[in-house]
C-alpha cells in the first residue's frame, strides 16, 4: 500500500498521509514518496491549491520510532544523509508554488509539526494534541526547527522544544502555529471555504503572491522587489483580464 494518496479535482490536489496503522508516522519510504509528490505537484501548472491531511485517527505521529531506532547501525555520514532527506521533504513542501492548506486532527507529534510549519494555512480540530516530543526520546527537534522558526516566537520554542509538553489547538493557535481551530464540522467548513476562495483567485497572481511572501523574508531591497511584482502583474494577460472583468461586471476567464 502506498504511504500517501494523491488525487486532483477541479485544480485542487489532495495529498493524504496514508499509514493509519502507525498514525501516519513517516519512515524513509514515506519520506521519499512525500518528497516526490511535493515536487511533482510543483511542476503542474494547472494546480491552484493543495490540501494536505492525514488518514485514520491522527494527522501524523512524526518520525516512525522503529525506523529511527534501526538507524543505530548507520554511520554518522549515513545518518546525516538520511536527515538531509528529511529536510528536503519539508523544503519541497514549502517550495510548492501554490498555497498548501493543511487539516490537522488527532495527534501531531515531533516531525509532523514540520509539515504544519511548512504549510501556508493550517486548521486543526479542537481536540488535537500537539507535541515537540523529541527531547522526551533523547533527541532534538533539529530538522524541523528550520521551518518552525518562521511560524512561532523564539520564546515558545524555548518552552515547548525543551519541555516536550503536550499542548492543545488553542495554544497552537495562540503561538501562531495554526490559523484557526474548531469542531470537526467547523474545520471541514473552513477547509472547503479556503480551498474554494483560493481556487477562484487569479492562478498566476496567487503563485506570484506566495513567492512574494517568501521573497520579503530574504530581500534587502523591498522597494525594488515589491515594485517589480505589481508592475509585471498589471500588464500581464491575467492582470488585464481581472481588471477588465471587474469594470465589465463579469466573471474573469479563469472562473469560466
Kindly summarize this structure in a few lines.
The chain is α/β, with parallel strands linked by helices.
Spatial order of the strands forming the largest sheet: 1-2-3-4-6-9
The proportion of residues in beta strands is 15-25%
- Coarse morphology: globular
- Tell me the helix content: 40-55%
Quote the average pLDDT: 95
Kindly state the number of beta strands: 9
Distance, first to last CA: 38 Å
Number of helices: 11
Oligomer class: single chain
Low-confidence stretches: none
Main β-sheet description:
6 strands, mixed
Class of secondary structure makeup:
alpha/beta
Radius of gyration: 19 Å
Order of helices and strands: EEHEHHEEHEEHHEHEHHHH
Secondary-structure map:
Elements lengths: L3 E6 L2 E6 L10 H15 L6 E6 L10 H6 L5 H19 L5 E5 L2 E3 L2 H7 L2 E5 L3 E3 L10 H7 L5 H10 L3 E2 H6 L5 E3 L1 H16 L3 H16 L3 H14 L1 H11 L9
Parallel strand pairs: 2-3, 3-4, 4-6, 5-7, 6-9
Antiparallel strand pairs: 1-2, 7-8
Helix pairs in contact: 1-3, 4-5, 9-10
Describe the structure in your own words.
The chain is an alpha/beta fold and 256 residues long. It is 50% helix and 15% strand. The chain has eleven helices and nine strands. The protein has helices spanning 28-42, 65-70, 76-94, 112-118, 142-148, 154-163, 169-174, 184-199, 203-218, 222-235, 237-247, and strands at residues 4-9, 12-17, 49-54, 100-104, 107-109, 121-125, 129-131, 167-168, 180-182. The longest helix has 19 residues, at 76-94. The relative contact order is 0.10.
